[in-house]
Specification:
Layout (H helix, E strand, L loop, with lengths): L18 H10 L8 H14 L3 E5 L2 H11 L7 E5 L4 H8 L4 E5 L10 H4 L7 E4 L11 H11 L2 E5 L7 E2 L2 E2 L6 E5 L12 E5 L5 H8 L5 H5 L19 H12 L1 H24 L12 E2 L6 E3 L3 H13 L15 H6 E3 L6 H5 L2 E3 L8 H16 L1
């Protein structure tokens, strides 16, 4: 433990080795704007992997969620239910449409929205439920979908962290009406900045393509379905560059390798830290029986905010970059302005203050994972 060590980063963007080749191919093809060969390959891969009716690569998961909000016809005064423990983009997409965000508490075991609190938050203004699959572990989707059916609500899955994860064998992002993936540099599969929208119902595909193509029917024109294209609806430009798509394609080809590598690190953490859990020092992630996760994140929970601050400082002194996560949105200035918390905040704030994320990325050396665990054990020895 006394030897000098390079800092173990919290995240290193994934790189498999063929990215430069594919980016070069995109450049040589003289097609570097959106919807070229690499975007089409990525869309097709996502459709085959998830079984979704349609997948559309986007410039970010934020933009995928904005597209979902447009497709859901969210209007000023509508209400959308989601957890407060999430990234700002989850709420922003609906706030931009003029909706009020209604936050409900999380389950302390998974940090996902508490499905048993959703129904009480529904009003005659409620339009949609947005479950967020934290750490790539699914929300209790059967209950959520049942509530949505009975109240005629849309379900938009924030599966930013959920690529390849499943709920009862069903890929996350394909269960609700819409699903949103992220390919940010912090995610398992990356294109630097990027995302994808998954569409369950075929009747929504044409409008999604129009919204994504600046409100034009340009996609139909390129397929030869019409002889000229024009402006037909409100939209924006949600097409990523082919350079980004080329980077992502390299990752998708090596998806199994990346996921297996991450899972090995996750499993090492879990086995190495079981003793600390049994001693009552920490809590480890909980994976419900019906859920298969993707090793997106490994977090621990400590006693309280003070202990977390001391632990993060201690790890930094020992060249380990561990980090906390979201500040609950309902406590932020914009959260107070654009939303409200329904019911009691029993767990959201308290549990968020206990959570520490440990370094985890593709290509992480096992010796580094073990070293992080040794540091954690030494923290509680001192």
């Amino acid at each position: 433990m006394g030897e000098t060590k390079d800092m173990i980063n919290f995240n290193v963007p994934p790189k498999v080795g063929t990215e430069e080749q594919y980016i070069s191919e995109a450049i040589q093809s003289h097609k570097i704007c959106g919807d070229g060969q690499f975007t089409k390959k990525c869309n097709a891969w996502l459709e085959k992997k998830t079984g979704t009716t349609k997948a559309l690569l986007t410039t970010s998961c934020t933009h995928a969620t904005e597209m979902a909000a447009l497709l859901a016809d969210i209007q000023p005064g509508d209400e959308v239910i989601m957890p407060s423990y999430t990234f700002v983009s989850t709420a922003d997409a609906f706030v931009l449409r003029g909706a009020k965000v209604v936050f409900v508490d999380v389950r302390p075991d998974t940090m996902n929205i508490d499905e048993n609190l959703i129904e009480d938050a529904i009003t005659d203004k409620t339009k949609a439920i947005v479950p967020v699959h934290y750490a790539g572990v699914s929300c209790e989707m059967d209950t959520i979908m049942d509530i949505a059916r009975r109240h005629h609500l849309l379900v938009i899955e924030d599966a930013a962290q959920g690529i390849t994860s499943t709920y009862k064998g069903r890929p996350l992002g394909t269960i609700g009406d819409y699903g949103c993936f992220s390919f940010h540099e912090t995610k398992n599969l990356s294109m630097g900045e990027g995302g994808a929208l998954l569409i369950r119902d075929g009747k929504n595909i044409e409008r999604a393509e129009i919204i994504r193509e600046k409100g034009t029917n340009r996609s139909k024109f390129f397929r030869g379905q019409i002889d000229k294209y024009t402006w037909v609806d409100a939209g924006s430009s949600y097409l990523p560059s082919e350079l980004n798509a080329a980077y992502l394609w390299a990752q998708l080809e090596q998806c199994d390798k990346i996921q297996s590598d991450r899972m090995n690190s996750w499993n090492t953490y879990y086995s190495e830290l079981t003793d600390l859990r049994e001693q009552g020092k920490i809590e480890l992630p909980y994976i419900p029986e019906d859920c298969a996760h993707n090793a997106h994140m490994f977090y621990i929970k400590v006693k309280d905010l003070d202990e977390r601050s001391r632990l993060i400082d201690y790890l930094k002194q020992h060249e380990v970059n561990a980090v906390f996560h979201y500040i609950p949105l309902h406590s932020a200035p914009a959260g107070k302005n654009f939303g409200r918390f329904h019911g009691e905040d029993r767990y959201t704030t308290r549990e968020s203050e206990r959570l520490v994320r440990l370094p985890l990325y593709f290509g992480m050396k096992e010796e580094d994972t073990v070293y992080v665990c040794e540091c954690l054990k030494n923290f509680w020895k001192k």
